[in-house]
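Re: the pair you flagged

First of the two:
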Amino acid sequence: MSIVDTPVAATGSRHIHDGTRFRVHRATMTDQGVYSEELAKIFARSWLYVGHESEVREPGDYVRRPVGGRPVFMVRGRKSGEVNVFHNTCSHRGAVVCRRDQGNAKIFQCFYHAWTFDTEGRLVGMPGREAYDEPAFDELGLAPVAKVESYRGFVFCCFDPGAAGLTEYLAGAREYLDLVVDGADGDVEIIKGTQQYGMAANWKLLVENSVDGYHAASTHDTYFKYLVSLGTDLSVGVSGVTKALGNGHAVLEYEAPWGRPIAKWEPLFGDEARPDIERLRAGLARKYGEERAHRIADLNRNLLIYPNLVINDIMAVTVRTFMPTGAAGTDITAWELAPRDELPQVRQRRLDSFLTFLGPGGFATPDDIEALESCQQGFSSGGIEWNDVSRGMNRDPQATDEEQMRAFWRRWRADMDTEVTR
């Protein structure tokens, strides 16, 4: 028996059994109460992506950003050399302590009353220190996020101190993070620069879209025509599989006609690029064997790490997070990941591919945002209660099926069914 999900918080009826259908009630996309539940039951309890270790390579390097809707900052401690993640709030009266998006610092000083903290979070100075007992310095440091761990340079945090460890949480997603990092000879970095944009649609629509192979041909028709105009042979088509990876994570892995800087040449890159890419491919084969080299170089991956991290390892590698601002609003942030010592000409091709397809002004992203906002608008029309997410239930999941979305929704329902003690 397959589960047909009806995850509606307002009714308390979240699932029934049926052999052929998997449905999601549209109230999950429109109900403000569902959104409020998600903040408490999903974003406050799941492991969430903070950033990459390459962003804080040197002692004192820091970046600040919202994670799970909360302001935090990540800094490499000058004494310990470890990556710390702190709640971005002064322990005195609450003001934001880290006030710039990135940089290098010896200390962080709250501008309100000039309380001063070092990169390990210790309170190291305050005006009128004699007004406090000495032990206050030990008790009033910055608050670290409950749990912080890193997997192959990807830094995650969790606000729930009782959560299982990151390695266990990542489950089968680790294999696909390994493919990304191994393809770069184990040393990747986030390229400087951040893309930030928003959409007037529910965040879970973007979850579905990010691992959806079914929409590509119809929604991104203009991009495929552009590739044809540059000499790409689309006759080979797209073929692959979708997989549930445990804990709500999922992947769409497939072979497609476009090129990849690591390490699949196509006419778009130009004839002069062919020797470079062939050398990269030969190096992968020597190190990992032909089978794994083929998987790294030729196969594309859209990886979802529940709840809100997507790594697209396609014609470039994008790291993208999204956070709901309400039932019908989402903030999206994206970065480009690349090998650290990549040849300049290969880096340029990667950035071109990233911006051309994945950037906010590229071929794909505006198409996707328009489609998802159109869905959100359509929900308000009424008349139809359920979205159907049944594609491929009667066969082994293929690249155009929806098993990866069902994996997300099963975990979503389990989290939303959990009682949280406030």
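Second of the two:
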Amino acid sequence: MGVGNVLLRVFGTGIRVLQFLAAAVILGIFSYYLAVLKDHHLTIATWIRAAEGLSGAACLYALLGSLLTICLAGITFFGFIAMALDVCFVGAMIAIAVLTRDGTQTCSGNVNTPLGSGPTNSNADGYGKDGFGFGSGETVTYLPNLGLACRLEKTAFAVSIIAAGLFVISFFLQIPIARSHKREKRFGPSPANGYTSGSTRNRFWRRNKKTNPDTTGNVLPGHPTPGEIEGGYKAEAEANTRF
């Protein structure tokens, strides 16, 4: 495998790892939102479930992509699938950014968050004693104030924009990876490159001029033709008659 191909695969794997980390951050934030809302018996909006599902799918795809990039990068079939999925997840990250657009607000004064709306230092309905549920006697997830909920949404918004950019990069990265893979197949191990894979070809100034092979030691002796044999016999017969 050529050095260029190895570098492309390492870079592609690094992009996939970053995608996984970005999706994992969003997934963790919305998992926390869902746990808080469920434990405190608050209404769970459909868009929160949607953001959770999209980030979870992106997390799984990026994890698998980081593994498959090492083994299958450059194969045309898998390259087309990866490019199609990259486009889908660019849309998914943009959708999450739209869903978390309240993250663009400053987290001061009155805010709108997935856990409720109000002043940043206030708590949503269902806060209970010390942030836990209403006297149920069971341990539930701690409900933060709306200021922290706002900052978490701001983080999810920013990370979704970054993740969308990472999926765009991996989309265009499939093209040079596929081309490098084709070059590796076309100019594979051979005497021209010392039986090492790669696309290295001899430069025109390094090419040796063709020389005539040495024929002095490997030439078989000539054999007479039937006509030459017959002529030889006649010449020998004439010579004998003279004597």
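The first helix runs from residue 3 to 39.

-B.
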